Amino acid sequence: MRRFSLATAIVLLLGCAEPPAEGANTNTPETDAESPAAAPAGGPVEAGTIKGTLGGEAGTWTALYRKRDSGADATSTYQTRRIGNIESYSLSVAGHVGTSMSPDGSLRISVMGTESFDACPCTVNTGTIEYVVDLPDEVWEAREATMTIDVFYQNGDGTFGAEGSFSGTLAWPEGGSEETIPVEGTFDVRRIQRVGQGT
């Protein structure tokens, strides 16, 4: 497995998912009635899961995808940007409690760097984890974290998918408390929306 460092920010949200079919890099959009692509415009639908433990307690967070008349949005996003001669890549895998997009109880994992995720499996050894219990009063952070992307693939409809794992130790920012919370888990998100292409 290739290992490398990225300038990263890792944030955590919530979800439920099936693994992608074999050869998912070239698969076509899902067309069954329950898939996000076929869902009616309006409310969010499940697009994957983040499963893990916070302080030894198991939890599951739902990644969400929502089609609208004007397009689509998702709690998980992928972006590429070029600044001069440097190409940057960012991936944000996020989940919520159930099918609500409320930030309370959310968990988000985001990485950003200059190497394409197409080359993964890869491990990011530095980053920040953020767990939102209740905005703005209770937000936990881990300033050092590890994230492994096992699979990163493109769906036939232009969205992306990713599978992997993460770990870190959450604490109050700026030394507000000495209490810490270990966090670790896995993610499997089938629909990640591409956003903000450009320079």
Kindly list the characteristics that best describe this protein.
single chain; 199 residues; mainly beta; 13-stranded mixed sheet; 0% helix; globular; disordered N terminus
Question: How would you characterize this protein structure?
Answer:
There is one protein chain. The protein is built from no helices and 13 strands. The chain has 199 residues and is mostly beta strands. The protein has one domain. Strands 1, 2, 3, 4, 5, 6, 7, 8, 9, 10, 11, 12 and 13 form a 13-stranded mixed β-sheet that branches. The chain is globular, with a radius of gyration of 16 Å. The chain starts with a strand and ends in a 5-residue tail after the last strand. The model is unreliable at 1-40 (pLDDT under 50).
Largest sheet: 13 strands, mixed
What is the helical fraction, as a range of percent?
A: under 10%
Number of strands: 13
Tell me the count of domains: 1
Distance between the termini: 31 Å
User: Gyration radius, to the nearest Å?
Assistant: 16 Å
Secondary-structure class: mainly beta
> In what range is the share of β-strand residues?
over 45%
Low-confidence stretches: 1-40
> Which term fits the overall shape?
globular
> Total helix count?
0
The H/E string reads: EEEEEEEEEEEEE
What's the assembly state of these chains?
single chain
Mean pLDDT level = 76
